[in-house]
Amino acid sequence: MMNEDVSKVLIDEEVIVRRVGTVAEKILLDFTGEEILVVGILKGALVFMADLCRRLPVPLQIETLNVASYHGGTQSSGVVEFLDGKSLDVAGRQVLLIDDILDTGRTLRAVKDSLLEMGARKVKTAVLLSKVKERAEEVNADYVGFEIGDEFVVGYGLDYQGRYRNLPYVGVLKEEVYETKG
Ligand code: IMP
Ligand code: MG
């Protein structure tokens, strides 16, 4: 079982559900008027985006973007690569950009900049988690679910080597998981 690989639950399911509702209320205050374009960064944003969107009872469209910066380990590679071309039609739109976690900040910075270059009228960013640390890039999310310490976490969309995204909570893996599978 997956749960057996977890050493500690950092944020449990009910707490996440409540917080997602609160974040949605804040977003609704900032996005008025025309339709929202929600852009989720694959694959980490999937779970958060799905729950958050269902708390936004307004007209919106959902798009996804594929970028890579991690390549499977627990350390950021420092390079953000756009994997499926920049084909989103964002010109003149108000965009809510969603990611699972703000770590070095490189991913969110790079994606936000290119959405603005592509003509988005406004880009606000939402992350489930923000690691409290020095950022490699000048970037902060407009909406943050939870601030956490600088440790590697999984669950609620976040993976280790592609796994554990389906844990309904955010947790920390046992050391031995990295030793055997890393
Ligand atoms: P950044 O570009 O360094 O801010 O990294 C953001 C991306 O790295 C996220 O979208 C995650 O996919 C991944 N990441 C960063 N920290 C963690 C973590 O603790 N667990 C799982 N993935 C992480
Ligand atoms: Mg990842």
Q: What's this model, at a glance?
A:
The protein is of the alpha/beta class and 182 residues long. The chain is 25% helix and 29% strand. It has a 6-stranded mixed beta sheet with strand order 4-3-2-5-6-7, with helices on both faces. A two-stranded antiparallel ribbon has the order 1-8.
List keywords for this structure.
binds inosinic acid, 182 residues, 4 helices, binds magnesium ion, Rossmann fold, alpha/beta, two-stranded antiparallel sheet
Distance between the termini: 18 Å
Q: Approximately how much helix is present in the residues?
A: 10-25%
Q: What is the typical, i.e. mean, pLDDT? A: 90
Q: Spell the H/E element sequence.
A: EHEHEEEHEEEH
Structure class: alpha/beta
Q: Any idea what the CATH architecture is? A: 3-Layer(aba) Sandwich
Q: Strand count, sense and closure of the main sheet? A: 6 strands, mixed
Based on DSSP secondary structure assignment, what is the total number of beta strands? 8
Bound molecules: inosinic acid, magnesium ion
The number of distinct structural domains comes to 1
What's the total helix number?
4
- Largest beta sheet: strand ordering: 4-3-2-5-6-7
Predict the CATH topology: Rossmann fold
Strand content: 25-35%
Task: Please give the CATH class.
Answer: Alpha Beta
